[in-house]
Structure formats: C-alpha cells, structure tokens
Amino acid sequence: MNFTYFRQKPMDFLVIIIFLESMIYLTVFVDVPIARQVLGFVYFTFLPGFIILKLLKLDEIDRVETFLFSVGLSVAFLMLAGLLINESSVLLDISRPLSLLPLMIILNAFILVGGILACLRSDSGKLWEAKTLGLHPSTLVLTGLPILSIVGAMWVNAFANNIILLFMLPAISALFVITVVSKKLISPKLYPLVLLIIAISLLYHSSLISDYIVPFGSDVPVEYFVFKTTQNNAYWSSTNPYFGDLGLGRIHSMLSVTILPTIYSSLLNIDSTWVFKIVSLLIFSFVPLGLYQVWTGYVGKKHAFISAFLFMADGTFYNEMLGLNRQMIAELFFVLLLLVVLNKKMRQPSKMACFIIFSFGLVTSHYGVSEVFLFFISLIFVSLVLVKRPSRNITASMVVFFFVTMFAWYIYTSGSAAFNSLLGFGDYVYSQLGEFFNPATRGQTVLRGLGLESPPTIWNAISRAFAYATEFLIVIGFFGLVTKRVKSRLDNEYFAFSCVAMAFLAALILVPGLANTMNMSRFYHVLLFFLAPLCIIGAEFIVELVFKREKEVAVSVLLVIVLVPYFLFQTGFMYEVTGSDSWSIPLSGYRMNALRLYGQYGFTDSYSVYGARWLSNNVDVENSVLYADERTCINVLTIYGVIYSDYVNKLSNATTVAHNGVVYLGTLNVVEGAIPFGRLSWNSSELSSVFGDLDVVYANGGSEIYKQSP
C-alpha cells in the first residue's frame, strides 16, 4: 500500500497552519472530548518545532531526524514560551499567566507569526517535496502491539489478571527476533516504527496498571507536588517555595515538571495524573528512536536497531524512569544534542541554533543529566585538543555556552538549590573516599552488577548470567575498539564518547559514594546511550575469533540468544511464569508483599487517594499537627493531598499525638495492617494506643482519619 504527500507551496503551508489553529480554537473552547486531546497534542508537540526547522532551513536532515527535531523543538518552544509568558505576566497584567486563555492566545500567536516568517524565508518556493511512502501490510499488525499493552494493563487494573501482558511480552521478543533475522518480513525501513511501537508498549504496560501515579521508589511525588503547585497558581515562581529544602527546590527549578505539564494540562484539558502517565511517556518513547538515528551511521541500521532494543530491554527504561518525569524529558534533549553535535551535514549556524535550543531544554529539565552531558562534552573537547585532533563538531563555543547556561540557571533559580545540591553531592563523595575498601559504599546495584551479591534463587542467578553477558559483550567490544581488532565506522567524536562512558562507568564502580548520587541504575541507563553499540561490536569481536563464514548470521544469533532471555527476565516474565519472587508490578503485583507494593514502590488505590484529598480539603494542614507513616507521607499525601512532606510527622510506637493532631491511615495501614518506619514495620494493632483514643472523622473502608477531640 502506497500513499503520497504532495509538495507544498509557502502559501499552502500558511493556509494549513491557519486551518489547524482554527480547529484548535474550536476543539478547545467547545471542549470536544478526545479530539481536543489528540489534535491538541499533535499540534503543540509537532507543528511549532516543524516551523522552527523551516526557519532554520534545516533541509539536510532526513525524515526521522525531521520528526525528532520537530518534537524536541516543539517541547523546548513550549517550555521557553511558557517561561516568557510567566515572567511577562506583571508587564501584561495577567494574574494567572499559565491558565488556558493566555496560553492559547499567545502560543498560537507565536505559531502563526513563525509560520508567516517560514513562508517568507522559503526561497525555493516549496516547503517540502512530494514523496511516496510505502505502507507495508505488516505495519497494521505491528500496531496491535501497543493495543495489547494498553488493554493488558487496563485488564490488570480492573481484574488483577495478567494473561494479556503475559502474551504481549513474548510477542515483543518474537517481533525482535523476526526483525533481526528477516529483512523480508520486516523491512529496514520499518525499524524506526518497530522501535517506537516497542517503546510505547513497554512504557504503557507499566504505566496504565493503575489510575494513579506509581512512584516506583523514585522522585515523582515531589515532581507532581511542584507541578500541582504551579498548576493551582497558574504561575511558576523562580524562588524556592520552601526555603532550605534543597531536594524540593532543585526539582522546583525544572521547567519539565512545572511549566511544561501545566501547559499540556491546560491546553488539552487532561487530568494532571494522566499528563504524567500518558503525555510524558509518549514524549519519552521517542528517545530510543533518537538513539537509533545516532547509532545508524556508526554500526548500520540493523545493529542500531539491536542496540536500541538493548537500551529498552533494561528494566530501568519502563520501571524506574516512570517515576522520573524530568529525566524522561531531559533524555529527549540529550539524544537530540547528540544528533546535533555528531551530525556532519548540518550547516554551522543551524547546528549552533539547535544546540542552543536543546541545551536550554536539557538544562531546565534535569540537573543531573545536564551535568553528565557537560562532563562528556568538556572532557571530549579538551582530550581531542590535547591529542591534536580538535573536533569540528564539538566547539569551544558550545562548551562555554552550555557551561554558562547551566550554572546561571542553577544559581539564579530556586535559591540556588540545584547548585547547592551539586556542591553537597561533591562533599558527600569526598567524605566517602576514606571508605575506598568498603564495598558497601558503592551501593547494592553496583555489588549485584559485579557479582558480589549472592542471588536468592536459581532464577535470579540465570537472570544475572544474561545481564553479565551483556556487560561482558560491552567490555569486549570496547577492548576490540581500543586495540583496533575489530573494524568500526566510529569517528573520533563517538569513539571519544565511548571512552568517556567507560571511564565514567569505572569511576562509578571505583569511587565510593559516586553511584549513590543519582542511583547506579539511572547512571547505567544514561551510559547505555554510548555503550549499547559496544555490545554489538563485542559480539562481532567474538564471532571473528570463532567463525570463518556466515559471520553476520552468527552475530545475529548470538545477540538473539543473549538479549531475548535478558529481556524476558528484566520484564519479570520469567519470574512470573516460574512463580518466583518478582519486582514487576504489572505481572506480579497481585501476589506481591504489601510492604513492597504499597511501601517501597508507592502503589496506591482510590481509598487512600480519596482520604488524602479529604484531608487536604477539610483540615487546616498548616495549623494542624499531621501524622502518617513515612511511605504514605512521601507518596499519597504528597501527590494527592498536595501536602508538603515536612508538615507530616512520622508515625512510630513512640508517637504522642498533639492536642490538635490529625492521624492519617491509608490502605497499607487499614487493610494490610502494616505501619512502616525506616527498615522496620509494626502491625497497626501495636500502635492502636497512639490513635485509639482519637475520634474517627473520616473512613471509607481503606483509609481512616483520626482527630484529637477539642
């Protein structure tokens, strides 16, 4: 099946923009369900960036890069335009600048003006050329995978039945195998689509298992708190709302979890929970596609596809990252910056313009990922200069601009919380240097990755064997590159990125405390941006030593043998079918220990949510003394009560309720009968003396609120 999109003249393009704007105004102000959300997301996530591309005359990039750049430039546009509207509110006399009406009028005005300028700058008389796109019949089959994922997750949510997901995950494995072994069934032209489908399927199979946010032990409660604070005020303050709280302050300074979700929620009329659970994940799903595009020029399309699958197979991608919305947005800008600096076709003015825009997006999305990027480009720039091979792609102006932008933002927003946190992390690592020979200072993940922690079951041992196999192939691939025993198309810049990534990985293992500053799993996830192709190069190196013929087939077979079991173990599929202990909430949440599910992972239900909302709406939080267990305080009260965690005292067997005290109990406490405190937990009955004499002012069967009698 083929279809053609026609070449458009500038005036035709302007007419399309005006038509789309009219449709946006209609669907927004009439509030047409579904159409407002779908059309609005496509319009605001693609069109502004596409217009910017035309203003920059970036005609030398291909279709996939055009798609990715359009998304990245659009997201950066929303963040920057939202910031300008926010900061200009005093001059414009707008009390709620991030509310619907100001955003609609000003953003659409920017888009219309940009469209007019793009038409005026079009010197060729045409904005894009006609091309015929082939729609392979297998494309329709592929679209069934995300449907399986979404329906399967909703089935788990409604009936605690994982049968659909147990079919979906092997289907992804089968799709990967078919794509690797047969170019006839899955054409290389479909690789980007296959990656996007796999990414969406994996992300939503974890996200949609609940109607509420699941933190997965990460930072999303605080991210959601600063988002709701911004949304409720329809204004973002550049100062730290809770002076002295560096953890909250540095997250509050990130536009990716304050202004950006507020804009999407206002324009699309999407509940704030679903902005995090759907919109952020959809943007994040483009990251593997961007990595594929980066790697294609170095290892070829097929091996770039396999590398991207390895990146997605790692459990951090669809578990821990779901609790890190600011890092999801930051990684999109990270991969786009790599596409910019490693692209040799882009003209220097266009390259620098894109670098500036994406740098702003990265700096205002995540401080940790920004610092990693600065470390990479600075070290690579200096190293290449020292070896007298200066890079034409990574210039001094890029390094200086990123450095100045990053530190200016982190020093002058939220009371320098991000900058002070960086200094604090440095002091922490320095204080740990005296414990160099103490393995515990590296963290549990590092010890497990090095094989220094014994596996609890035979299935865990097998899982780790496949994980170690991927690590071994990466190390072998790097060894082959350094010793030049394998042929590669890596240029000086990407080889330098790989060397720095391996050095960084070694530092995380060797330097006490360093891995704990952002969690080893998150560091490794980011380092796979550079290390994943080394796994394929390592497989090629081994095959070169063993086989004389059919080397390409042998490499594919070896990678399939390693990566398919690795994927099935990482997703928890193998643990579920064998009945072993599992960390997968989508597959094994129904049989998971309550303290792990509700406490460690932060899973919540409607009982706890309604109780938290009642507490927030009916109790003077700031003038009362609140009590709750520490996990409930960090998760459900912070997210759905929008209650600052320091306002809540932690329940323990030594708690004495004040005269104006209010005790909140959630599902973990009422239904499961557990009250966690640090590494300990009590039965709720053991603490009945703490709140037994209080009056019950709210109860819904899963949540209870007690209050001291006046």
Explain the overall architecture.
It is a single chain. By secondary structure, the chain is mainly α. The chain has helices at 10-29, 35-56, 63-87, 89-92, 100-121, 137-142, 144-159, 163-181, 191-207, 220-233, 246-252, 259-268, 272-284, 286-313, 325-341, 348-363, 367-386, 396-412, 417-432, 444-449, 458-482, 492-510, 520-546, 551-570, 573-578, 585-588, 594-600, 606-618, 630-639, 667-670, 688-691; strands spanning 2-5, 131-134, 625-628, 648-650, 661-665, 674-677, 680-683, 695-699, 704-707. It is globular, with a radius of gyration of 26 Å.
Helicity range of the residues?
55-70%
Strand content: 5-15%
**How is the quaternary structure best described?**
single chain
- Which shape, going by the Cα principal axes? globular
DSSP E strands, number: 9
Main sheet record: 5 strands, mixed
**Which structural class do the helices and strands define?**
mainly alpha
Q: How big is the Rg?
A: 26 Å
Q: Give the terminus-to-terminus CA distance.
A: 75 Å
pLDDT averaged residue by residue = 91
- Quickly count the domains: 3
- The side-by-side strand order for the widest beta sheet comes to 4-3-5-9-8
